Amino acid sequence: MSAPGPTRTSSSSTGTATSTDLGRRGPGALRLTALHTRSQLLETVRVPIAVVGTVVFPTLTMLFFVVPQPFAGDPVQATGATAQISLFAVMSVCLFTYGVGVAEDRALPWDSYLRTLPVGAGPRLAGRLLNGLAFALVSLVPLVLVAWLLTAATLPLDRLLLTAGALAAAALPMLGLGLWIGYRMTTKAALAVAQVLLLPLAFGGGLFLPPQLFPAWLDAVSTWLPTRAGRDLVVSATTGADLPATTWPVLAAWTVLTGVLAVRAYRRDEGRRFR
Contact at 8 Å (CB) between 161 and 123? Predict the structure, then answer.
């Protein structure tokens, strides 16, 4: 009489346990986010003109619009002007790194392949956000150095975190706008729209000239722009100037609006290509 053989059952159980263990040991969300961030950084760095434009353009704006002016010797005005150009640098990153960059990625087969992987959109989107944050910080370094060396701008340490938070809040509408452009448009259209929006929003928001120099009609229109609300918030954080009552409502409204547009554009793109 032969003894019962549990070999097949045991082997099957072992195989199932091994597969489960391998699944549990798979890359976590943080590691996947780091991999996506590294990949996107390398892709951007491989196009040197993109890095140079991000770093050099805001600094040149500082040199042309702030350093030669008489108010560059006044600590309060120079600090406020530096805050305005800093917001312009962050805005440029949002429109081009997120807007044009996303549109370019969508045109590549690699992006379609990544969307088919069973890891969800979270790590890829988080990596994209971190990539843009890295380039925003890079663009601010030479700008701050120029302000420190060539103007009387100063920022007390107790206002450093407040300024960083103000910049982040002011960038939210621009982030949503950039993602909407990237997920809604082709590469050529995204580049054109980003270029068309950048300078009018910057000028109209008072990032190059203080709103006190605007005519009455332009000042009234400027009050309702996201760049003007962001400008007032950042200048208030850096200099302690009074914050207009319209700042937070306008900033919140534009953040919600552009956020909704970005989410709808992403879902439309995903549904159009993967349904």
Answer: no
219: nearest Cα among 204, 230, 229, 234: 204
* 8 A C-beta contact, residue 97 and residue 131: yes
Rounded-to-integer distance, Cα 95 and Cα 50, Å: 13
What is the spatial distance between Cα 87 and Cα 229, in angstroms, rounded to a whole number? 11
Cβ atoms 128, 33 nearer than 8 A:
no
Residue 173, CA distances (Å) to 82, 110, 146, 150, 219 in order: 20, 28, 27, 31, 20
Prediction pTM value: 0.81
What one-character DSSP code corresponds to residue 72? G
Does residue 135 contact residue 93 with C-beta atoms inside 8 Å? yes
- How buried is 10 (Cβ within 10 angstroms: 0-12 exposed, 13-18 middle, 19+ buried)? exposed
Helix (H, G, I), strand (E, B) or coil at 122: helix
Taking each helix axis from N to C terminus, what angle separates 29-45 and 122-150, rounded to the nearest 10 degrees?
50
Taken as a whole, the chain contains a residue count of 275
Average pLDDT value for the chain: 83
- CB of 166 closer than 8 Å to CB of 245: no
DSSP state for residue 3 in the 8-state scheme: P
Summarize pLDDT for 3-50 with one digit per residue, the tens: 454 444 444 444 444 434 434 444 577 888 887 778 777 776 666 666
Residue spans per domain, the chain: 31-274
Q: What DSSP designation does 118 have? A: T
Encoding tokens for residue 247? 């700042």
**Tokens describing residue 133:** 């944050």
Distances (CA, A) of 182 to 57, 99, 151, 206: 21, 4, 37, 26
Q: How buried is 131 (Cβ within 10 angstroms: 0-12 exposed, 13-18 middle, 19+ buried)?
A: buried
In angstroms, rounded to a whole number, what is the distance separating the alpha carbons of residues 106 and 116?
13
